[in-house]
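Tutorial, part two.
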Amino acid sequence: MQQLTSQTYSRSRFGIIVLATFLALSPLMLSTVQLALADSVIATIEVGESPTEIAFNPINGSMYIVDTGLVFTNGGVSVIDGRTNKFLTNINISGPGNVAFNPNNNDIYVTNSTDVKVIDAKDNQVIKTIPMRVDGTIPSTVIPNAIAYNAKNGDMYLPANVLIGRGVRNSCARNVIITCVVSVIDSKSNEIIKNIPIGKQGDPTATSAGIIAFDPNNSNMYVGNYRDRSISIINSSNQVVTTIPLSGSPSAIAYNPKNGNMYVAGGASNVVSVIDSKTNKVIKSIPGVGIFPDAIAYNPKNGNMYVAGGASKSVFAIDSKYNNITKTIPLGGGPNAIQNAIAYNPKNGNMYVTIGFDNLVKVIDSISNKVVDTFPVRQGAFKIALDPINNDMYVTNSLNNTVSVIGAQ
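Running the prediction step on this input gives:
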């Protein structure tokens, strides 16, 4: 009996020791588990000089990065394999500016100051060069500022400034007949099939804002006119439907599928204009959105629009139902901290914000609307894009010639 009691006591004592040890180590174990489940920078990939814009190609699972090339090179396009997060190749393109994927023909389109290059996703070779021309003028007179795909007709749309004679980039000359246009590239022939005049014509100060977005609700393209302070709306038949005046120069634009509206950040006016896509009228102007807001994105998890507030060091959450600011999310940072881009990750429902000069990416939880994580990346954190196959976020570090890959959990 004593032996049994002794054995029972020994086992109980052992259990108590194990329990005490577990309780003592549980905070460490929990933090280790949390660390394992948390986001992290899983790769830093060397690319070309001064990487800026970025686009994903679902056909080959690769990311295409515009290397603008400022000092040592003329630039190019770097390709990263999303499956291995390894650098694949650099495509020689002089002075690239913007990049976009066309799901109608599976090609990548890259703009520069004189033409558009078409890249075949199969072998990453340039298969076509499309000169930018308006009314028979030489190619160097038309400078595209952006590029976007129209899912209704399968074409690519390029807002551009027209410079005849001597001019300055992103400014139009005084003897211009067509001040600013949207060039339309047919994805079958890869030729410009139309140049659509937008904004105030013949006004040497009216320039393209370089922002454009497709509205799947009405199949229209919404294009920003910078100095004109307006949005030109182009239908899928390539006609200007109307031009909407804004309270400020458009600096960013995004579509909200929950309410079918377009949201336009108004640059220095610090206003976000809400455009009803049924009536194509501004139904609300939301004031106090940071200091020169310059990026905007939709969050399908909570239906909110998130606006990067520029120099305000904050992100603003706008409710889709009432179009009010529901939360101002402080980001903090150094004296030169500024948000360059914002993007949504469907794996965790969070928003990712690049902070230039501070070289950081901050993660905003869509439930609490608070910053829940901060990642140091490399110098000049600029644009950010999602790879929907691996759910990783890719950040271009414009001053470090690298791309940081954040593995989302």
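DSSP finds one helix and 33 strands in the chain. In part three we will examine how such features are distributed along the chain.
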